[in-house]
Amino acid sequence: MRKEHVAELRAGIFTIITLICLSIALFILGSQKGYFRPHVTLKARFLHVYGLQKGVPVRFMGVTVGQVRNIILPEESPCNEIEVVMQVDKAVQKNILTDSVATIKWLSYVTGDSYVEISSKDCTGHIIKDGDTIKGAEPMDYTSAIENGTIAIKSIARFFNKLDEGKFAETLISVSLSLNESITQFRESTGLLNALIYDVRGRLLMDNLITASDSFNEIIAKVAEGEGTLGALIADPELYDNMKSLLGGAERSRILRNVIRKSIEKGKINTTQ
Q: Do both 49 and 90 map to the same domain?
């Protein structure tokens, strides 16, 4: 009888120790996963989740704060958005606002592991409540980007193949040599354009022309601003009208012509004396 009691006692102790170890392991795993911490539920909708799975991390500004609990496909229409249900620690509830945005990102582009990143950029909303839905931003479709890049590379390869087949490089070298010969002949020629560019006298002539052009521009500017007699006549229409009326009157008035004539004769007499 004693042997039977000892065996039962050993079995009981072993069972108790096993249960204790199992409880500790569950507690540790639950603490790491956040099963025993209070949490709130958040939702976000996406047109495409790109392989997102249950249990992947949910991060806020790069810090892991929860995990994805469920992914719900649309029931009424396949064109509707997919709902992603997230479980987030209640301790960070005060940091997540109603204007926050959820984005699907990748932990590794090789394995395709993804997670949900929550960010609050504007910080103008209110603190979220349990069960609220925040905006979901569609991630970049890297598969399409890679496919488009592959197509572009193939197009470039075909282009260079055509250049090689058409002897484009040889044609380009020939054109370059012809251009160099034309420049050399132009420098050695004796024409007017060559003299203006390379001859010293031609350069002096060009400098004089530039100086004369600058002086002419200054005169035109002064006339336009009303400086000088010509400028005053142009800038002051009233002075021009007075001069016109005076000259016109002199031609039409006999008295004024006689006065002018007598003045001239008197001046001649004084000169002879």
A: yes
